[in-house]
Amino acid sequence: MVILDSAEKQSMLMEKNRMESLTDGIFAFAMTLLVVDMILPRDAVITQTASAALFSLIPAFYHYIIAFFILAAFWMGHHDQFSKVHHIDRNFLFLNAIGLFFVTLVPFSTSFIGDYSQDTVATCVFEFNLLILGLILVFQWYYSSHNHRLISPELSPFEIRHRMYRGLIIPAISLAAIITAVMGFDSSTMLYMASPLVTYFVERVSGSP
User: Fold this and answer.
1) Phi and psi at residue 202, in whole multiples of 5°?
2) Strand pairing partners for 85?
3) Confidence at 114, pLDDT banded by 50, 70, 90
4) In angstroms, rounded to a whole number, what is the distance separating the alpha carbons of residues 9 and 5?
5) 3-state SS class at 44
6) What separation, in Å, do the N-terminal and C-terminal C-alpha atoms of the chain show?
7) How buried is residue 68: exposed, middle or buried, by Cβ count under 10 Å (0-12/13-18/19+)?
8) How many Å separate Cα 86 from the centre of its chain?
9) By the 8 A CB rule, do 175 and 132 touch?
10) Which residues of 2-34 are buried (b: 16+ CB within 10 A; e: fewer)?
């Protein structure tokens, strides 16, 4: 076990706090940007009735809901992960930066699938974005928890595995959604609606050591 002196501990804690602040800000900004796609184009305001304009926003609003709550779930998972990480290193910083890159892509992929809601490519781009983001967060946890590298040695192997299983829920749903879309089925993003049920099932199955 590596023993850190007080100066090193203070430096690492400061870096951890800075990274948490940056992460919170980027998540908040990405979740706010999602609503930009809900703004009506100027020609729609002039040529359409209010009801027709509102109806035209349904696909965008549907994907906005999915993206917002999945980003919220990722943020809560990230926050929960950080509550167990007592210090960070350069590799963890790098992994976090990659994860934040894919967080900032979510508003784009959400807007893209909103504009081409029946297109397989647009659907797969959106789902692939969430798949990669979820896997990066899982790998972050694996990296920090492997041999208790960045977490407390008091954290049990069961709790480490349990957090890993929970982190794999959205990536697993994303992979299933991509396969569904490639097979030609419409509305593969509806699979994300099952995430609360899948989470409940995982909690029940792995809820005790």
Assistant:
1) -65, -40
2) 151
3) confident
4) 6
5) helix
6) 26
7) middle
8) 22
9) no
10) eeeeeeeeeebeebbeebbeebeebbeebbeeb
Q: Read off the pLDDT band of 209 (50, 70, 90).
A: low
Q: ∠ CA(93), CA(131), CA(173), 5° rounding?
A: 135
Q: Alpha-carbon distance 112 to 129, whole Å?
A: 12
pLDDT above 70: residue 2: no
CB of 114 closer than 8 Å to CB of 37: yes
Distances (CA, A) of 113 to 11, 38, 77, 133, 192: 43, 13, 25, 17, 15
Name the CA dihedral angle for 86, 88, 93, 99, rounded to a multiple of 10 degrees. Answer: -30
Give 32's pLDDT tier (boundaries 50, 70, 90). very high
Q: How far apart are CA 158 and CA 8, in angstroms?
A: 30
The pTM of the full predicted model, rounded to 2 decimals, is 0.85
Judge residue 94's burial from the number of C-beta atoms within 10 Å of its C-beta, 0-12 exposed, 13-18 middle, 19 or more buried: exposed
Q: What is the 3-state secondary structure (H, E, C) of 101-135?
A: HHHHHHHHHHHHHHHCCCCHHHHHHHHHHHHHHHH
**The token pair that represents 30 in the structure block:** 């990405």
DSSP string spanning 1-26? -PPPPHHHHHHHHHHHHHHHHHHHHH
Tell me the average pLDDT across 68-73: 94
- 103 is written with which tokens? 């967080």
